[in-house]
Amino acid sequence: MLSWARAWRLPYGRLELSRICFSRVPVAPSSSGRSGADPRSVPLSYKLLDGEAARPALVFLHGLFGCKTNFNSIAKALAQQTGRRVLTVDARNHGDSPHSPDMSYEAMSQDLQDLLPQLGLVPCVLIGHSMGGKTAMLLALQRPELVERLVAVDISPVNTTSSSDFPAYMAAMKAIDIPDKVSRSFARKLADKQLSSLIQDMAVRQFLLTNLVEADGRFVWRVNLDALAQHVDEILAFPPRQESYPGPTLFLLGGNSDFVHPSHHPEIRRLFPGAQIQTVPDAGHWIHADCPQHFMAAIRGFLA
């Protein structure tokens, strides 16, 4: 459930926003020992682009191994094009958000249930890619009053284990061995070489390497690999739900991706009776990277 695997830029011209907010937060305490209680939320790192407060904000949730900066160019362009506030968020155990041993969708939903009202962004338009799409779907099902409309990007509310290479990515990342006190360029080159034995796709390796950061003279993974590996089966699954979300919903699929199969459509219709299913023909799993203009056009069309 990656967010994108390549870099690109959008010619969105001069962007004039009245306020840009950043949040960077510390490590969260452990939430273990809370069996039977609601998941303990962590204070997520986010970036908020200002816009018209009277209209529902756009909230972007990245996928596994991603971070809020994956949507930087799209967020800026849509803020300009729609006049709306746009929020990008780092999921727990990703980006600048705190690490936590709990990586359940219930916990990730709880993080947003706390953050979005604090920022005055409810109800919002929730747009989630892959893992972020599953978080968005669960939040909409649990708290429909917080979600004005929903976009799930190349993901469905079913188990996606058969479509995923993520366990192999985690194993490759955990096997990396980089000496202390080396330059960033050398560390990245060495890590890329070591990853290449298990991950042949250079674009995927370059994406994963965006998580390699320096801390106290050592290079470490910014994502919490231990928590991700422990919960990988849970991340690839979806929590069973009985209730449905009645609001407008768009499932935006990549024509070259196999993450969402026609066999998933009945469960999509059961949980999201107002769902539209739209396909971007030339896109893979990372629609927002492969076809950014088509991606934004689909979002704008859904908002109209």
Task: Give a verbal description of the structure.
There is one protein chain. This protein has helices at residues 72-82, 105-118, 131-142, 166-174, 184-196, 202-209, 225-230, 232-236, 265-271, 287-290, 292-303; strands at residues 20-23, 46-49, 58-61, 86-89, 124-129, 147-153, 212-215, 218-221, 249-254, 275-280. The chain has 304 residues and is α/β, with parallel strands linked by helices. Strand 3 (58-61), helix 1 and strand 4 form a beta-alpha-beta unit. Helix 2 crosses helix 3 and helix 5 crosses helix 6. The chain is globular, with a radius of gyration of 19 Å. The model is unreliable at 1-27 and 29-36 (pLDDT under 50).
Write a brief structural summary.
With 304 residues, the protein is an alpha/beta fold. It has helices spanning 72-82, 105-118, 131-142, 166-174, 184-196, 202-209, 225-230, 232-236, 265-271, 287-290, 292-303; strands at residues 20-23, 46-49, 58-61, 86-89, 124-129, 147-153, 212-215, 218-221, 249-254, 275-280.
Q: In terms of structural class, how would the helical and strand content be classed? A: alpha/beta
Mean pLDDT: 88
The largest sheet, given as strand count, sense and whether it forms a barrel, is: 8 strands, mixed
Distance between the termini: 28 Å
Helical segment tally?
Answer: 11
Runs in which pLDDT lies below 50 for 5 or more consecutive residues are 1-27, 29-36
The run of helices and strands is EEEHEHEHEHHHEEHHEHEHH
According to DSSP, the number of beta strands is 10
The percentage helix is 25-40%
